[in-house]
Write a structure and sequence with these properties.
The structure holds 2 protein chains of 2 kinds. Chain A has no helices and 11 strands. In chain A, the strands form 2 sheets. In chain A, strands 2, 4, 5, 6, 9, 10 and 11 form a 7-stranded mixed β-sheet that branches. In chain A, strands 1-3-8-7 form a 4-stranded antiparallel β-sheet, with no helix packed on it. Chain A is globular. Chain B is mainly beta. Chain B is about 0% helix and about 55% strand. In chain B, strand 7 and strand 8 form a beta hairpin. Classes of the chains: A mainly beta, B mainly beta. At the A-B interface, strand 4, strand 5, strand 6, strand 9 and strand 10 of A face strand 4, strand 5 and strand 10 of B.
C-alpha cells in the first residue's frame, strides 16, 4: 500500500495570508490526525478526524481548522498566518477508532515558512 | 490532560554500546505507548509500540518496557550502530469517545559514535 502523502511538501507564505495543506491517508484508513512540529514546542496534536467528524482538538487557536472528506482525505487550514506558525505540519493516519487496536503512521510533512 | 516527559534530551554512546531512553506519563488511563525515530528532514517512523496489556516487547535490537504502576516506559537499543543516530520520541495515548491523540515527549537526540 502507498503510505500517507502530503501536499505541498514546502510552502512559503507571508504574515496575514492563509494556507491550506492536504493529506491523503493510507488506503482503508479512516482516522486522520494532524500535528505541528517546531524546535521549541516539539510535536503537538492539532486535531483528529474520523468519518468526516472532528473527534478531538488540541490546544490551538481557532485560526487552525480542518476537515475530512468522504474518501478520508483531509485538509487543514491556517488563517491569518503568524511568524510562529512556521513549522513542519505532519499528518498521520490509522485504520480505526482506537490506537490501542490500530497503529498510526505519519506522512512526510509539509514544511511551512511564514515570512 | 496527559503530560509526557522524556529523558535524556541528548544521549551519546559508542558504537556497540546500549542506549536507554526513559519516559514518564501522567494519565493512568493511557494504554498505548509508541516510539518514533525521526532522522533529519524525514517523517517520524514508528519503530516499536507497546500496549498496556503487556509489560515488555522486543524486536531484534530494540525493546520497550512498561511499568504501569510507576507510569513510565523505556526504550532499549542494544548493539547500537551509527545508523541508529536520530531523534527518538516517545508518546502516550488513551482510547476515548472524544477521540484519540498522541501526546509526545520532548525527544532524545541519540548520537552513536563509530
Amino acid at each position: 500500500k502507498a503510505g500517507v502523502t502530503q501536499t505541498p511538501r514546502y510552502l512559503i507564505k507571508t504574515r496575514g495570508q492563509q494556507v491550506t495543506l492536504s493529506c491523503s491517508p493510507i488506503s482503508g484508513h479512516r482516522s486522520v490526525s494532524w500535528y505541528q512540529q517546531t524546535p521549541g514546542q516539539g510535536l503537538q496534536f492539532l486535531f483528529e478526524y474520523f468519518s468526516e467528524t472532528q473527534r478531538n482538538k488540541g490546544n490551538f487557536p481557532g485560526r487552525f481548522s480542518g476537515r475530512q472528506f468522504s474518501n478520508s482525505r483531509s485538509e487543514m487550514n491556517v488563517s491569518t498566518l503568524e511568524l510562529g506558525d512556521s513549522a513542519l505540519y505532519l499528518c498521520a493516519s490509522s485504520p480505526g477508532l482506537s490506537f490501542f487496536r490500530d497503529t498510526q503512521y505519519f506522512g512526510p510533512g509539509t514544511r511551512l515558512t511564514v515570512l | 490532560g496527559e503530560n509526557v516527559e522524556q529523558h535524556p534530551s541528548t544521549l551519546s554512546v559508542q558504537e556497540g554500546d546500549s542506549a536507554v531512553i526513559k519516559c514518564t506519563y501522567s494519565d493512568s488511563a493511557s494504554n498505548y505507548f509508541p516510539w518514533y525515530k525521526q532522522e533529519l528532514g524525514k517523517r517520524p517512523q514508528l519503530i516499536i509500540d507497546i500496549r498496556s496489556n503487556v509489560g515488555e516487547k522486543k524486536d531484534q535490537r530494540i525493546a520497550v518496557t512498561l511499568n504501569k504502576t510507576a507510569k513510565h516506559f523505556s526504550l532499549h537499543i542494544t548493539e547500537t550502530q551509527p545508523e541508529d543516530s536520530a531523534v527518538y520520541f516517545c508518546a502516550a495515548s488513551r482510547d476515548g469517545n472524544a477521540g484519540n491523540m498522541l501526546t509526545f515527549g520532548g525527544g532524545t537526540r541519540l548520537m552513536v559514535k563509530p
